[in-house]
């Protein structure tokens, strides 16, 4: 699969969300950070804004739910128009049931792991998912420094995906930029969320293209991709 670049609207101007969504034409997905001020110490947006965004852009929405009780709320984000819904392993009461419900409603099901959450306990659950998100910062805010200590976890996750022969996307989120994306791609990521690196650029659409080029060239030389 080609590298996918998903701009995070957390770094966009929230007063001009529709324009900001259209400013990243050519992006694979628009990453929508939903924060409830309980699971993370920040508050962003909810279902009505996702419904409006889905009408405002042709780019599919990748909703990242940084919230408590995703078992209750995630299905509503599918109904609001999200094409992919990510819940946190640390917050879900019944992750298998929830992933199946998201898929049954017609969206891609994805699960996120905070930096201190290991991937190994979830090995048997991976076939239930379409994507796994390895957080490369503590969730809650854009513009944080990339955590290099997450690279071994990205590698281990890629090994589990290969071991089980899964068609599972591996997303990274937090501090992804021109200076870090190659390390992520070499370690095994194939979906890259970038907030400040895209919306902080003079030309966000060009920033998306440049990040994709960098990721694809790093992937081409990576051992995990050559083994496919
Ligand atoms: O989930 C997030 C924070 O919890 C954001 O998606 C992420 O931080 C993107 O911002 P940046 O690329 O600036 O780090």
Automatic annotation (TrEMBL):
It is an enzyme of class 5 (isomerase). Binds 1 divalent metal cation per subunit. Its EC number is 5.1.3.1. It comes from the Bacteria. Pathway: Carbohydrate degradation. Its cofactor is Mn(2+); Fe(2+); Zn(2+); a divalent metal cation. One of its GO terms (biological process) is pentose catabolic process. Keywords: Carbohydrate metabolism, Cobalt, Isomerase, Manganese, Metal-binding, Zinc. Belongs to the ribulose-phosphate 3-epimerase family. This is Ribulose-phosphate 3-epimerase. It catalyses: D-ribulose 5-phosphate = D-xylulose 5-phosphate. Substrate binds at residues 8, 64, 140-143, 173-175, 195-196. One of its GO terms (molecular function) is metal ion binding. GO terms for cellular component: cytoplasm. Pfam families: Ribul_P_3_epim.
């Amino acid at each position: 699969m080609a590298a996918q670049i998903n701009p995070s609207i957390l770094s966009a101007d929230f007063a001009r969300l529709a324009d900001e969504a259209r400013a990243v034409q050519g992006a694979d997905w628009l990453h929508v950070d939903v924060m409830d001020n309980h699971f993370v110490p920040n508050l962003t947006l909810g279902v009505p804004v996702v419904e409006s965004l889905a009408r405002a852009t042709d780019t599919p929405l990748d909703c990242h739910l940084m919230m408590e009780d995703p078992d209750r709320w995630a299905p509503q984000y599918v109904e609001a128009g999200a094409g992919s819904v990510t819940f946190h392993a640390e917050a879900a009461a019944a992750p298998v049931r929830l992933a199946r419900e998201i898929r049954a409603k017609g969206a891609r099901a994805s699960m996120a792991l905070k930096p201190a959450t290991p991937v190994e306990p979830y090995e048997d659950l991976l076939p239930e998912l379409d994507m796994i998100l390895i957080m490369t910062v503590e969730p809650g805010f854009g513009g944080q420094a990339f955590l290099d200590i997450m690279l071994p976890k990205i590698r281990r996750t890629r090994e589990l995906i290969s071991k089980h022969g899964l068609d599972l996307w591996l997303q990274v989120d937090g501090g992804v930029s021109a200076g870090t994306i190659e390390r992520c791609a070499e370690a095994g990521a194939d979906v890259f969320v970038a907030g400040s690196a895209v919306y902080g650029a003079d030309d966000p659409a060009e920033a998306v293209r440049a990040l994709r080029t960098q990721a694809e060239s790093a992937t081409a030389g990576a051992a995990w991709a050559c083994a496919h």
